[in-house]
Design the sequence.
């Protein structure tokens, strides 16, 4: 919350401190939300200033997981327009980031962990594949959201489709970087998982027939995440 931060330090220090906080939180693999006066002028006006649009865009480029509106939607004259405008700016920046062919896997993806496990290794492998192959999505089946969060830590170059049967987990994952949560009954077999991925992604126009995806899941389904499978819809 930059408003609270600005009370503690001078306004001239806020931008650099914001960037440092986002970077350090990314390095620790935690969720970071940037808030306060993102589109403040839209409390009174139907369009933001160019500086506000740049502020939103830079927060995305810095690596924030989510952006939050406050006064714009709580007391502003144009709450719906404010949400639509923030969404449009975020989508524009993220589309540019994904399309950037020169982009390399960020340093945050090379985190040194105290204890590596199958889930970490599978998530990292899935993210690395997104930089080496023309993947349209990475799909993960998750009960508690952990596999989706691990994937988000590694900042893959494509969207993460997190399939869960638990509404509370889907709501939580909506805040994570690059994650598109979907509620579905989890599959019992690998064949069911492949059919579900194809049907869901095509039905919701997240992908189309012929697209390639990576599936990060536990196999057998009763175990934790331990498998990465490439699949063409």
Sequence:
């Amino acid at each position: 919350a930059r408003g609270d931060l600005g009370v503690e330090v001078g306004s001239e220090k806020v931008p650099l401190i914001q960037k440092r906080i986002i970077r350090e939180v990314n390095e620790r693999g935690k969720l970071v939300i940037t808030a306060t006066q993102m589109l403040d002028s839209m409390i009174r006006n139907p369009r933001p200033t160019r500086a506000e649009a740049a502020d939103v865009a830079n927060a995305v480029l810095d690596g924030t997981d989510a952006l939050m509106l406050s006064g714009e939607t709580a007391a502003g004259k144009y709450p719906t327009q404010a949400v639509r405008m923030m969404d449009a700016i975020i989508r524009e920046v993220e589309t540019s980031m994904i399309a950037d062919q020169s982009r390399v896997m960020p340093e945050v993806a090379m985190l040194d962990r105290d204890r590596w496990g199958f889930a970490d290794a599978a998530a990292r492998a899935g993210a690395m594949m997104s930089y080496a192959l023309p993947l349209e999505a990475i799909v993960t089946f998750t009960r508690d959201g952990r596999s989706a969060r691990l994937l988000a830590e590694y900042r893959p170059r494509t969207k993460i489709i997190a399939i869960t049967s638990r509404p509370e987990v889907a709501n939580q994952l909506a805040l994570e970087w690059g994650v598109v949560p979907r509620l579905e009954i989890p599959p019992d077999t690998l064949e069911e998982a492949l059919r579900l991925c194809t049907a869901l992604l095509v039905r919701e126009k997240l992908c189309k027939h012929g697209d390639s995806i990576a599936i990060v899941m536990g196999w057998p389904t009763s175990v934790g995440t331990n498998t990465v499978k490439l699949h063409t819809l």
